[in-house]
Amino acid sequence: MNNEDIYVSLDIGTSAVKVIIGEMSGKSLQVIGVGTAPSRGMKRGAIVDIDETVHSIREAIQKAERMVGLSITRVILGVNGNHIEMKPCSGVVAVSSSDREIRDEDIDRVMDAAQVLSIPPEREIVDTIPTQFIVDGLEGITDPRGMMGVRLEVEATLITGAKTTLHNLLRCVERAGLEIEALCLQPLAAGDFALSKDEKTLGVAMVDIGGGSTTISVFKDGMMQALRVLSIGGDHITNDISVGLRTTSEEAERIKRHHGYAFIDDASEDVTFSMNTMGNDHSEDYSQYEIAQIIEPRLEEIFELVHEEIYRMGYSDLPGGYIFTGGSVMIPGTLDLAEDVLRQNVRMTVPDYIGVREPIYTTAIGLIEFAHEHVKIQDKEMAVTSSSEEQSFQAAPLPPADAKPKKDRKELREQREKENQSNQSDQPTVKSKVKNFFKVFFE
């Protein structure tokens, strides 16, 4: 096992908390540990009970640890929710080296310059996503390192979140005994994993139907253009079944998972199942057709809301169609209903890795692959430790002690951080709680 390529992702959802331990070898991912636990402290994508959320995180972490005999100490944390906002930003700096070659420190400085924006005190900067770099007026550059120039510019997207929501999320993870190695926008990571380059270029909508919310992310021209979160999801389907069949929420969830069907036109009256109802000592039989009568109207409403929201965002023509993920799309007949309602090409994305071949793991897998492929990792310490030997594992190699260029860059970065803190002491960011990990990525 190559200790330097181990990543741990944490996806805290409304219905479940997912933890995945992955080992990267080149561009190949091997899932070596998976932990899933019911999410008891979340409602409609927001934390409503910190203690319950902490308990769910610990339970999922422990399950993943037992699979591989590792003790997890640091995680890549996914961030999502209707509190996330995106806005364009830009920065410009002069190339600092005497030979005018653009180096990593120039990238760092121009990305820092792009973040010098006035944001409300109730919001935090999560990250800055570069759209393109411009060197002496030459546009369309994705990676300017090694190029010669005098003036370096960047056009980027600034991602911010509600301070209270983000700090509650951080508090839960820290109280679970974990350190946050990186914050990553979940739709961005999921889209980077699930969508092809052509789909992201031509235009596509990725729809993640979770338990308490539905996330819509639109990709076009190679990048994520818009993000919306609807406060409706699979839990609403469960509630409809509970009310319609007069049964408990637990029984309704079981029925949805094992006997649910989403498309009335293809549902069968001959396929039946038994279930317990409240107030009765005996079970009752229902058909697949009857359960479809409950599930289809709610899913149809979700698809119509998604369609309306995408039009409202100004994307009426998306050649790539709709890509669905999330636990609720596992209900048989969902894609048939989606195609009937949306009148466009639809497909479901499922991770093709042993142990996680379900759409509920798309985001957690995406976090690992996104971190490995796009995030510049510097001075990263151990992510997991061996339970038997207490041996430290590194997710990226540390620089040698005599690597002076690395040391100089680190000193420059620390100096800039101190200057930023003194200039913006009234605007602390979430990044002050995590390493400067999720800073720059390139296609």
From TrEMBL:
One of its GO terms (cellular component) is cell division site. Residues 403-420 have a biased composition (Basic and acidic residues). Its main location: membrane. Keywords: Cell cycle, Cell division, Cell membrane, Membrane, Stress response. It holds the Pfam family FtsA. Residues 384-394 have a biased composition (Polar residues). Cell division protein that is involved in the assembly of the Z ring. May serve as a membrane anchor for the Z ring. This is Cell division protein FtsA. It comes from Sinobaca qinghaiensis.
